[in-house]
Amino acid sequence: MNPASSEKICVIIAGGDVTGRIEIPEGALVLCADCGYAHARRQGITPDVLIGDFDSFTDALPEGIEILRLPVEKDVTDTFRCVQYGEEHGFTRFHIYGALGGERIDHSIASLQMLRYLYERGDGAILYHGNTVLSMQYGNGVTFRYPRFEGDFSVFSLSDKTTGVTIRGTKYETDRITLTSSFPLGVSNCITADCAEITAESGLLLIVQVRK
Q1: Burial, 103: exposed, middle or buried (Cβ in 10 Å; 0-12, 13-18, 19+)?
Q2: Disulfide check for 195: which of 47, 88, 92, 145 has CB 3.0–4.6 Å away?
Q3: Residues 170, 153: contact at Cβ < 8 Å?
Q4: 3-class DSSP state for residue 92?
Q5: Rounded distance, CA 151 to CA 144, Å?
């Protein structure tokens, strides 16, 4: 991806699937959404704040950690409320674990919408799902670079259409094509150069890196 910003990062640990190590950058704000605390506890991570209605985390809540208890009936998911909490405290970069998988596919769909919400507000965000990394890229003519890795590299249009999509440094390259949200043309590519370069003129792309 583009060079990392010096801005501090908000790490959110949700209750979906977490199969790899949760990385906590120095100075990060760490939030757990409901039973995301179980993932944090297993990895020896002490969050700054626990947020949720705690309908899925049924153990005794820890002492010495700030708790923001939410009503069960609400307009946003516990994970989305973590995002709002981070924004309220001035964070604009988010690393989110456990937002996909689990028994609730509706929560996974909500997490993808949450990712789009963050990008539309100008915030940087990444969803981590085991060896899979999901991010987004706007079609504003700016070239984004993605370092080479072993595995699948897929590009999808989240807009009805994303125009002027140019992809370089991959097995399948493109030159100013149009991707649509109704045909998965960009699935299962791979990076062959030192990095892939992607530019789009309009629309919104979902970038999925499945690392082996």
Answers
A1: exposed
A2: 145
A3: yes
A4: coil
A5: 19
CATH number of 136-211: 3.40.50.10240
With tokens 């700054």, the residue in question is 48
Query: What single-letter amino acid sits at 74?
Result: K
pLDDT for the residue numbered 6: 54
- In tens, the pLDDT along 75-97 reads 889 999 999 999 999 999 999 99
**175 backbone dihedrals φ, ψ, rounded to 5°:** -135, 100
Q: For strand 204-211 and strand 174-180, is the pairing parallel, antiparallel, or unpaired? A: unpaired
Exposure of 109 in the CB half-sphere (CA atoms within 13 A): 4
Domain boundaries, the chain: 10-130, 136-211
Place of tokens 């002490």: 46
Q: What distance separates the 2 farthest-apart alpha carbons in the chain? A: 56
DSSP 182-201: TS-TT-SB-B-SSEEEEE-S
Structure tokens that stand for 209 in this block:
């890196």
Residues recorded for the chain: 212
10-130 matches 136-211 in fold: yes
Architecture label for domain 10-130: 3-Layer(aba) Sandwich (3.40)
